[in-house]
Amino acid sequence: MPGFIDSHTHLLKEAAQAPFPWAGTTVAGFHRATAEAGITPMDVPDAPPPGPPGALPGRLHDGLRRAAAAGLTEITEMGMRDWRYLDALDVLQQAGPLPARVRVYLASGLAEEASPSEADARRAAAGPGSWVSLDGVKFYADGWLGPRTCAMEHGFADGGGTGILFLTAAELARRITPLAARGWRIATHAIGDRGVATVLDAYDLAWDGDRAAIAAAAPRIEHASLQSAELISRLAASGVVACLQPSFAVTDVPDVGAGLDAARAATAYPWAALAAAGAPLLSGSDFPIEVLDPLPGLARLVAGHSERDGFRTPVAAPASSRLTAALAYSIMSDQASGRTLLSADPRTTAPGNIDRIQVLGTAPVPF
Questions:
Q1: In terms of CB atoms within 10 Å, which of 96, 272, 317, 342 comes out highest?
Q2: Which domain range does residue 198 map to?
Q3: DSSP secondary structure of 77-123
Q4: Total domains present in the chain
């Protein structure tokens, strides 16, 4: 079977036991303070990983072993804020093969703080045969649904305002353009419909509206959770890749019901509509916000829920967020990453039985 991949995770940060930037405050408070400072969450530096410097490689190796045990052959660390992680991964590679291969997107603040020659040299150092690939840069356009900080065209139904937009389209395009010109892949967090529209506008500006160039560069929108029908069509036609989270449509049900009116709730987590429109899709867990294990995520994406021990969900995701097993598995796996050995093929297993599939092992391959 093609290997399971997680295209959006914070596994390395979690394994390092490093606090998230909002530690000591609320996410809403962190988002407001960041916006007031004129920066974005991806511009805020990390505190150094705790513990002695020599502990970091072992901690990262333990995290990658957990990923492999869950069935993953590749993870993408989305928004690395400290070069220490890349240095620790280099130490691990020198000792032998990694349990899973690693793609890295730098946080925008770290990428722009480094000199172009330093960042590009680090990226070029990961050649064929490496277990680590330094791929791109992550930006941040808006906040989250739960704290009502994602940027919305209209106010939240429960009076939460219209959210936070960290960057205008022109500002985001200005920051993207020099990195994209040097071959870095671009990903931008956007959850609300105003956030998604702003990112699409920025990508049009950065690539001069050239659809072929956008499709070739394949910039990403991370989450793209709340969209209108018009936005769904626009995103699908743009060549921009949407990286969805299989568990969001399940765990966000209370916030969708409270924060969105009926019309907007009907187009929340519109994975089926995006797929039908031909939008390029990827899948990432957003661990540790959601579960790392791909099989509960796959069950949620296909059946709308998972009954696997530890992942029980009180409500099912709406039909608009569900995909066929074949399509769901295709965006959660990649033959090039290696193989995941499973007790049954998810593509031919009844949706209600995906929870019964067991991971038998993994066989990742280097880049």
A1: 317
A2: 2-364
A3: EEEE--HHHHHHHHHHHHHS--SSEEEEEEEHHHHHHS-HHHHHHHH
A4: 1
